[in-house]
């Protein structure tokens, strides 16, 4: 049975040690996205890694910590205005509705957006039904 969620939900980003952060549920977006800064590829012991910092100083969950992923991808993403761009993408875990799920986030500058996290259809599919008239229907 699918869980009913609202247009905004609290999630726990397990690998980033961030609890109860707001995420916008967007059935119009295919991919999920998270706000990052200073995204760069680097070499550690001859192996390519991806480094980035989550969120902004103005966000109450900002830690300034640099996260490093060995396994990452480059995805083509079409924005809401139809422009296709390449973005780095990482696979991680998110806890939502008292259950832990695997999720893939594209890393993007979302500083102009109200919510630092966007949950797209690829993640939502076969797990949730979205009621856009409500928010905060689950606990992380």
User: What's the CATH topology name?
Assistant: Cathepsin D, subunit A, domain 1
Could you name the CATH class?
Answer: Mainly Beta
Average pLDDT, rounded to a whole number, is 92
The CATH homologous superfamily:
Acid Proteases
- H/I helix tally: 1
Structural write-up:
The chain is mostly beta strands and 140 residues long. It has one domain (7-130): Acid Proteases (Cathepsin D, subunit A, domain 1). It contains 1 helix and 11 strands; from the N terminus they run E-E-E-E-E-E-E-E-E-E-H-E. The chain has one helix spanning 121-124, and strands spanning 3-5, 8-13, 18-25, 32-44, 47-54, 66-69, 73-78, 84-96, 99-108, 117-119, 128-130. The protein has a 6-stranded mixed beta barrel. A two-stranded parallel sheet has the order 1-11. Strand 7 and strand 8 (84-96) form a beta hairpin. The mean pLDDT is 92.
């Amino acid at each position: 049975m699918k869980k009913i969620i609202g247009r905004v939900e609290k999630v726990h980003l397990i690998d980033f040690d961030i609890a109860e952060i707001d995420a916008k549920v967007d059935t119009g977006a295919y991919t999920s996205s998270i706000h990052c800064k200073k995204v760069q590829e680097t070499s550690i012991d001859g192996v390519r890694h991806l480094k980035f910092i989550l969120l902004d100083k103005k966000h109450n969950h900002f830690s300034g910590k640099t996260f490093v992923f060995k396994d990452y991808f480059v995805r083509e993403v079409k924005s809401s205005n139809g422009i296709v761009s390449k973005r780095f993408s990482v696979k991680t875990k998110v806890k939502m509705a008292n259950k832990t799920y695997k999720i893939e986030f594209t890393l993007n500058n979302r500083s102009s957006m109200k919510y630092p996290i966007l949950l797209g259809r690829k993640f939502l599919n076969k797990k949730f039904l979205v009621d856009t008239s409500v928010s905060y229907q689950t606990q992380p």
